[in-house]
Amino acid sequence: MAEPVVDVHSAAAEQAAEIATARRDILRIATAGSVDDGKSTLIGRLLFDSKAVFEDQYAAIERASRGDYVDLALLTDGLRAEREQGITIDVAYRYFSTPRRTFILADTPGHVQYTRNMVTGASTADLAIVLVDARKGILEQSRRHAYLAALLRVPHLVVAVNKMDLVDWSEEAFAAVRDEFRAFAAKLEVPDLTVVPISALRGDNVVTRSDAAPWYDGPALLEHLESVEVAGDRNLTDVRFPVQYVIRPQSDAFHDYRGYAGTVASGVLRSGDPVQVLPSGRTTTIAGIDGPRGPVEEAFAPMAVTVRLADDLDVSRGDLLCGPEGAPEVTQDLDALVCWMADEPLRPRQRLAVKHTTRSVRAVVREVVHRLDVNTLDREQEAGELGLNDIGRVRLRTTQPLFVDDYTHNRATGRFILVDEATNATVGAGMLVPH
Questions:
Q1: 163: number of CA atoms within 13 Å, CB side?
Q2: Which pTM does this prediction carry?
Q3: Residues 206-250: pLDDT tens digits?
Q4: Do strands 156-162 and 127-133 pair parallel, antiparallel, or not at all (unpaired)?
Q5: Nearest to 195 by CA among 239, 155, 161, 146
Q6: Domains annotated on the chain, with CATH
């Protein structure tokens, strides 16, 4: 996060409105599905048809293409290993814009052994696109990724039934996939599901509506992405502001300035509002809020700001500002669903570091309660440990208290990562669940 600059030369209302508009128009997307369902081709098509590909980029992939058509998947499959194997391994991020919205696309792996990468890509997504090959129907990996998207509380899910041109745009083939997926999604309590028939290779129903499917009366994929409403998905009620950095310029111009920089996790901060500081529990009011280009009257997720308090309290990195009402739970006992990302299994009594918002503590694994079978949704109660790419319920005890919410209530303060202190490698991602 860039350090907020203390500057008083910008109109607060204009600044807040400008930031609000920019934040509202960003949509974070994660794509998922089985191997060879066409995820990378779809992203390449979106980039190409939205004019987000430079001429030299297009010329390069045209030369690298092996078949009798330009392989747009090469726009995202940039790793040599991926090109050799024909699968996506890493999470490839791409950015593009239309007049209506800015998009951040994460092309996540389809292969089962890279489930951890899919979790990484979808953890911050507003919308997930699960591709399904119209010829094959819904496969085990399709269900796995839909379940992971639901588990990560991605609020919007799109099923793109791809390669419709290979089934002659059969309405029956599309309806079979749509109805089966809707039945499966009902078990996952997916709040918003949209099913679109497409051909990523030929561009049908990707950016514009296609005449190939006269029986389909819904929007093209990009039309839906441009219009889906995500502002209501954010928690604007519970104030959560993890302190990342204490700003003390100690200059002649700002001799007594003390500000607390960070990114708003949820809720709305306003000048004059009462706040509580955790872990001390002391209360005060907000004296002012400074943005990157000057003071603002209010701040909301995910704005990066510096908050000034009316009283001189002891506040440091890792502390949390919250509203006096509806404060998070202060606890050293974590009960969470953990996706394990390391080769060595997660076992009871293992010691790890926990990174939660801006706070880092040490922890010990008290118990592996169960392991989830993401294909059948069954719980394996006698698992005892979590292997690579496994997801299970784990209980941990931390050396210092954390300020947490359930993940279903607040994605920002309800998640954490696990770090191996010996190697400093991220080995797990956790989502807090009710005790």
A1: 15
A2: 0.78
A3: 988 989 999 999 999 999 999 998 877 778 889 999 999 999 887
A4: parallel
A5: 161
A6: 12-20+235-322 (2.40.30.10), 34-233 (3.40.50.300), 329-432 (2.40.30.10)
